[in-house]
Amino acid sequence: MSFLIAAFWIFLSLTVQILLCNHMTVGGGMALAYLYMVTRTPVEWNRSSQILLGFIVGFIVDMFSNTPGLHALTCVTTMWLRLPLLHVFIVADDIKNGCPTYHRLGSSVYTRFLGFVVLIHCVLLYSFESFTLFNFFNLLSKIVMSVVMTFLLVWAADVANNTK
Description:
With 164 residues, the protein is mainly α. The chain has a single domain, classed as Orthogonal Bundle (Arp2/3 complex 21 kDa subunit ARPC3), CATH 1.10.1760. The chain has helices at residues 3-19, 35-39, 47-65, 70-89, 102-105, 107-130, 136-160. Helix 6 runs antiparallel to helix 7 (136-160). The longest helix is centred in the C-terminal third of the chain and has 25 residues, at 136-160. It is globular and about 45 Å long. 34% of the residues are buried.
């Protein structure tokens, strides 16, 4: 993936997040459109670049969401866990270059990989946000709704982006 294409997808996912998703909540949760780029970061990029990208994306979302450091922390953690999670679902030699996409991994593997990344990200995000289990069912509602909406949004965007 060239730098310009990656920059375009980062810009598009951040724009959708800032202009649309930040203002729409269902059951306390919201779709996290920026996870599209977090999941599609090329595997061949070095780990430091991936984590730096996660920080930059999270920091930009934080600036527009009035959540100082929350999204940056969860994006960095998600980017740090993304590659090991990918290797849980596929053999390391199966994807040495390119992005983990629906068309490259197949529907079953991609669905499981995306589900785990989104679940981990949402659990971290809302756990750090609440910083307590006092209102457990409210927290659980936010996590479940965000996981469902984010998964569907990222999955649909990846299936629609028909690049192999």
